[in-house]
Design goal:
Elements: H1 3-8, H2 22-31, H3 41-49, H4 52-64, H5 84-90, H6 104-124, H7 131-152, H8 154-164, H9 171-189, E1 193-197, E2 204-207, H10 210-218, H11 223-233, H12 235-243, H13 251-261, H14 270-292
Antiparallel strand pairs: 1-2
Helix pairs in contact: 2-3, 3-4, 5-14, 6-7, 7-8, 9-11, 9-12, 11-13, 11-14, 12-14
Keywords: Membrane, Transmembrane, Transmembrane helix
Transmembrane segments: 107-125, 137-160
Length: 299
């Protein structure tokens, strides 16, 4: 089921579902079957224009018609003190390690490169004459080249690691679950969604809100807005934490949240920042678990 169908159609309850691609989301907005009197073209036009206000208005109109019932259905969240024990009780696995960046994919990639080149180096060392010297030397230099690329252009190495990560059986499901969580929570809170991507190395949900952007760029985010942004930022991490023993895709989410925190007035203390992160994850865990039982209450 396309994400837009899961979020807009009145017969479908929002859930973490596999998302096809950015282009398919756009097509779904225009081609999803609508009830008599419901026109999705306005939403498609707004998405094409990248106009957040037009997207909001189109979704508000669809909500009035009973078609986008869950749009902005839970716009208010209220922060409270949250402990690690509460996260564990809610089903978050290894809650104490949520903020520790995962090195699973990096370690697997480097181990494979070093192991493979080492094995081939030993094997080609049996070649006769000068071949037995030069070939192992050239193969062994591959590991050094990889390290050099990582030092000079970390993004290029990260792209290679991302492509290599597809060998893990859970890779596609993790990505879909992670990005669908951001998509779902943004929709429920009322932040316009203009697109998404599940392409390797480019996984993201594209949100835009002109007023919110002004507050971010000016460094004037208040407590209410940082709470909303924290919930959206931590959605992917929470979705992974409920399903897997170890979260893999949290680095970008934590970096994004820290960027928002740095633009908050008044600034948050370290303890407040830590509690904000824990609260957002607990809030989302409650929401995801409630949606499984058709309850639509967040926090």
């Amino acid at each position: 089921m396309a994400i837009v169908a899961a979020l807009v159609a009145p017969t479908a309850s929002p859930r973490l579902a596999a998302a096809p691609s950015h282009r398919q989301w756009r097509a779904a907005a225009a081609s999803s079957p609508a009830a008599p009197g419901v026109d999705l073209k306005a939403l498609q036009v707004a998405i094409d224009k990248n106009d957040s206000e037009d997207v909001k208005q189109a979704l508000d109109q669809l909500k009035e018609l009973g078609w986008a019932k869950q749009w902005s259905s839970q716009p208010y969240v209220s922060r409270r003190t949250t402990s690690l024990r509460e996260l564990t009780t809610l089903g978050i696995k290894n809650a104490e390690n949520l903020a520790i960046p995962s090195v699973r994919n990096d370690a697997a990639f480097l181990f494979t490169v070093v192991g493979t080149t080492g094995f081939l180096g030993v094997l080609t060392g049996q070649l006769p004459g000068d071949w037995g010297f030069f070939v192992p030397y050239l193969i062994g230099s591959i590991s050094l080249i990889v390290l050099a690329i990582g030092s000079i252009s970390p993004g290029l190495l990260q792209a290679a690691i991302g492509a290599f990560s597809t060998v893990f059986p859970d890779y596609q499901e993790r990505i879909a679950r992670h990005e669908a969580a951001h998509f779902l929570v943004s929709y429920l809170i009322g932040l316009p969604i203009l697109g998404y991507s599940l392409d390797i190395g480019k996984e993201h949900v594209n949100l835009i809100d002109d007023k919110l952007q002004e507050l971010i760029y000016s460094g004037q985010l208040d407590q209410k807005e940082i709470d909303r942004l924290a919930v959206v930022s931590m959605a992917g991490l929470a979705a992974e934490g409920l399903e897997y023993d170890k979260v893999v895709g949290q680095s970008a989410d934590l970096f994004t949240l820290q960027r928002f925190i740095n633009r908050t007035k008044p600034p948050l203390t370290k303890d407040q920042q830590q509690n904000l992160t824990r609260w957002a994850v607990s809030c989302l865990a409650h929401s995801f678990l409630n949606h499984k039982t058709q309850s639509h209450v967040i926090c």
